[in-house]
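Q: I'm writing a short methods note and want an example of a predicted protein-small molecule complex. Could you take the sequence and the SMILES for adenosine-5'-triphosphate and return the bound structure as tokens? Please keep the output block clean; save any remarks for afterwards.
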Amino acid sequence: MEKLEAALAKAREMRQGALGGPEAPRSSTTKAAAPASPNWQSLPEVALPEGHAQRYRITALSGGRDAAPYDMLRSRIIRMMKEKGWSRLAVTSPEAGCGKSTVSLNLALSLARQRDLKVMLLDLDLRRPSLHRTLGHNPEKSLHEYLDGSAEFEQCAVRMGENLIVALNASASRRPSELLQSQVSRDALDAAERRWRPDVVIFDMSPMLASDDNVGFLGNVDCALLIAAAESTTLPNIDICEKEIAQLTNVLGVVLNKCRYADDSIGYDYGTYQ
Ligand SMILES: Nc1ncnc2c1ncn2[C@@H]1O[C@H](COP(=O)(O)OP(=O)(O)OP(=O)(O)O)[C@@H](O)[C@H]1O
Ligand SMILES: [Mg+2]
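A: Understood, no commentary inside the block.
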């Protein structure tokens, strides 16, 4: 683990200056120009069905020991994002199944436990959406339909508690890559952000190495978190993806997930309790 951390740090150091990174906040929608925000309470509230928390490893619903890794991650992320004036965070990984959706939802729940933070989580894995299954809720319309202009945001969005909106897909999109790169999607995302005024927007993405969805989309976010799976993601793949992300947005960090042996002394070991 220490070797992996050291190798990543060295690779990052060597790249510094060569790749740079889009440090400045995206030129985004300003809250001042926005119309009055609708009441978040107007969205239907969902709670995790019985057994889903355990089945899908959702441990950050309330504080405590099981939520601790996500609460630590939350604190670091929010500090860095506030410092830079960023609001949009993408969560991606080199390959499928590293834990992006698990981390995205837990992180969103952890952030939303801070009373002064309004959080929006968007299921942007338009090839294999999953958050609707975790939440046990099939929305009337899908987020991809909102993005292409054929649905209202309210038709795909639900609320968890007071501070978290989750936008879901009931089905996969037939043209995810084109949609994610389109101006119409960008405008729809800007409109949702302007209207609902979240402090933080988390995008649960598809894996980097499976398609060009991320390449076409990451320019729309302020920063990204790369989730690696401890015993399956290779160091070269982490490095390739980190480099690619750094050309598109700011790399917030690498989370090493699915560690069999948690070591609290190492900063990457978030979300590793099994
Ligand atoms: N820390 C962990 N330890 C063990 N299993 C985990 C951990 N985090 C997630 N998982 C499990 O790994 C599987 C994949 O998780 P998840 O769906 O969050 O990954 P993903 O990266 O979003 O996958 P996909 O690429 O298909 O969208 C799930 O069964 C999840 O419960
Ligand atoms: Mg997923």
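A: Remarks, as requested: The first strand starts at residue 88 and ends at 92. The longest helix spans residues 68-84.
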